[in-house]
Amino acid sequence: MIQSDNSPLIVNAVAGASISTVRRQQTLEVAIGGDWVLDAPVPPVEPVLTQIESDTALKSLIFSTTDLGRWDSMLVTEVVKLLDCANRSGVAVDKTTLPLPIQNLLALAAAVPERIDAHRQQQSVSWHEAVHSAWVGAVRESRAMLLFVGEMALSTLATVRGQAHFRREDLWLYVQECGPSALPIVTLISLLVGLILAFVGAVQLSLFGAQIYIANLVSLGMTREMGGLMTAIIMSGRTGAAYAAQLGTMHVNSEIDALRTMNLDPMAFLVLPRMLALILIMPLLCLYADLMGIIGGGLVTVNFFDVSLTEYVDRTASAVKMKDFTIGFVKCGVFGILIALSGCMRGMQCGRSASAVGEAGTSAVVTAIVFIVVADSVMTIICNRLGI
Questions:
Q1: CB contact at 8 A, 296 and 195
Q2: Could you read off the pLDDT of 70-99 as tens digits, one per residue?
Q3: How far apart are CA 247 and CA 318, in angstroms?
Q4: Of 1, 4, 273, 333, whose CB has the highest number of CB atoms within 10 Å?
Q5: Count of CB atoms within 10 A of residue 220's CB?
Q6: If you ran DSSP here, which 8-state letter would residue 113 be given?
């Protein structure tokens, strides 16, 4: 739509705000008046955009803000639309006709242009680059873990000497959180693992009429291996991730920095009670899981495979020795150290954003499970070689 020279056109107006255009030869003057604020009704600028795009003879665009009242980012947003439309149509814009604050805001917005390739792109890497990156990452992780273990050892030594601030109340609180509070999930999982072991063993043993040995299979499997392993996996997802999230959130909120400012060692004040609680409670949870697994296996054996309760208990007592309990006990103690180490280390390494807290929790669980499986494999091989 082309206006005749010096003939004003009120494009749109609402209470408190208006926008109009006046064609002066090859120049279009856009007059903006009234209040242009977010909580006030403002007229649409689309008719002006259409006029700029359809007027092929238009060469320049100026503004008139004589009647402009209050304004905020709403006006700046609409002005940017007009500028973009004029730029696409090849129309020159005289920004000096705008109020100086708006000119400054437009200059600030244009100072940092939007990155076209701001999203992350997948880049193909060669196999030797991937191997090199993996090696560098492994070295970095190993160094960070050694550093954390060293700091933990120094903090433990300072606590023993009475040179660090250690709260026993926190220790018992963490024992409560990772011990009795975890019993329901440990009970459920251990019972189900005992049921599964009994059913799996019964499939083959029943072929030879040896259902009585289901008790041996379940009791030895739970005490030597599955009780501690399943308890460790449960605690890595429950307590290890919680430790990482708690410490990571404190890091985001600068609470750990505040402790250092008050000359309190975060390792002794925050990390040591958590690690001690988990290391102390894990063997006890392992014994409880062993008992629940044996009970679960007994439910299957007694009810489905013609074995009396007395026979099941007798076979279990004769099959399980003290060394079997000791092996599971020691394994679970090692697992407790690894879970606490992974959770606390990832929490202390957390970044300062909300997403970093989630990444720390995920990394703590993955790290703990990898350590648990590797440590369990090594200890099983050692026990086999030693004949125990």
A1: yes
A2: 888 888 888 888 888 888 888 888 888 888
A3: 46
A4: 273
A5: 17
A6: P
Round to whole Å and give the CA distance between 332 and 316.
Answer: 21
Q: What is the pTM assigned to this prediction?
A: 0.65
Q: Are 232 and 332 in contact (CB under 8 A)?
A: yes
As given in the structure block, the two tokens for residue 316 are: 């279990």
If you average pLDDT over every residue of the chain, what do you get?
85
Asked if pLDDT for residue 2 goes beyond 50, the answer is no
Residue 386: its H or E element: helix 354-386
User: What's the pLDDT tens digit per position in 168-182?
Assistant: 888 898 998 888 889
Of how many residues is the chain composed?
A: 388
d(CA 278, CA 379): 20
**Which residues, other chains included, contact 214 with Cβ-Cβ below 8 Å and sequence gap of 6+?**
198, 201, 202, 205, 297, 300, 301, 305, 307, 312
* Half-sphere exposure in the Cβ direction for 170 (13 Å, CA): 12
Q: Does residue 378 have a pLDDT over 90?
A: yes
Q: Residue 319: which H helix or E strand, with range?
A: helix 309-319
Query: How far is residue 373's CA from residue 368's CA, in Å, rounded to a whole number?
Result: 9
Quote the tokens at residue 69: 């009242």
124 DSSP 8-state letter: -
Q: What is the Cα–Cα distance from 215 to 140, expressed in whole angstroms?
A: 47
Cα–Cα nearest to 339, from 371, 296, 302, 377: 371
Cβ-contact 205, 310 below 8 angstroms: no
**CA distance readout (Å), 75 to 52, 72, 140:** 18, 6, 51
Secondary structure (3-state) at 206: helix
Percentage of the chain beyond pLDDT 70 is 93
The phi, psi pair for 350, rounded to 5°, reads: -60, 150
State yes or no: pLDDT of 280 exceeds 50: yes
The strand pair at 7-14 and 92-93 is best described as unpaired
